[in-house]
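Can anyone check this?
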Amino acid sequence: MHAYTQFLLEDINNAHRPLDYFQRKKKISNREELKNKLEESENFLNYPESIVFKDYCGLKPEDFPPGENLEKDDLNALTKAMVKMYESWNILVDLPDNLPAEFAYRLVISLLDRGMPIMQYGFFGMDYCTGNPEGCEFKEYCTCLKYWEEK
């Protein structure tokens, strides 16, 4: 594993959502918490895509070397760490199992530049799936291909 990968893994670990990110100064009632949950659901539908994920976590795509400059072990370690970091922010990243390491790495790094809601009560799923393999970001690794081929 490259030394630079170790530094990146530390940076990724430091980019996890702080445990007190949603902590409130005052105790709220169950009614107020329900109101907040409903508000979050409504905001999910209208979240501002201009606020990109790197603004929350502090990591920038340019901090990461191109995938072709890394060994497969480095790519896998960084991808796994990024997915875990996204999970700390309640963002679930779903990638096909057969996706090549460099491809998966490139996708999880590209998420830093995407607008995503940061949710306290729910999760935001990033699965890339439109249900149609035509134009899919996964290309020939799209999990929907087998269903479309059966038709």
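Reply from J.R.: I decoded it. The beta strands are 91-93, 124-126.
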